[in-house]
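Thread: Newbie trying to understand structure tokens

Hi all, I'm a second-year student working on a class project, and my supervisor (Dr. K.) asked me to get a predicted structure for one chain before our next meeting. I've only ever worked with sequences, so writing a 3D structure as a token string is new to me. If someone could post the tokens and maybe explain what I'm looking at, I'd be very grateful. Here's the chain:
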Amino acid sequence: MNASALPVRALRAAWCWLVLAVAGASGCAGGTPPADLFVVQRTGTIPGARLSLLVREDGSLRCNGTDPGRRLADDQILEARTLARELDEAARDRVALAAGPRSILTYRVRTQEGVVRFSDTSPGQRQAFFELAQLVRRAAQDACGLPR
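---
Reply by user tm_fold:
Sure, no problem. This is what the structure looks like when written as tokens:
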């Protein structure tokens, strides 16, 4: 092999690896569906309380098993990602809070790390639980077209 051909071959090989890496990162090899951040099962004692909400990394949603064709707003996507990290921590801690007096809504949240349970009146709720309840309500109304 010629010594001057070695750098050309090395450059060609590096170029091929770069092209493959970019192609793989862009998902052109069939595309990978976005990761699930969390799934919320909301139940309650009021009409319209029942909801199953899947929130994905890219902001896409599934509301009660159907795709509404809408996504979370950009600020809500960032909020959902932050909440997912906080909920993962709660799931690792196996947080399951009993309902407080006159509970109306109950939440069961499945994350990558496990399950968290709480209600709207659970004593000892983490701030993330209040924020999740607000995000779920906004998503249910704005993206899913539900009354609550």
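A couple of things are worth pointing out once you decode it. Strands lie at 36-44, 51-56, 61-63, 105-111, 114-119. Helices lie at 5-26, 74-92, 127-142. Feel free to ask follow-ups in this thread.
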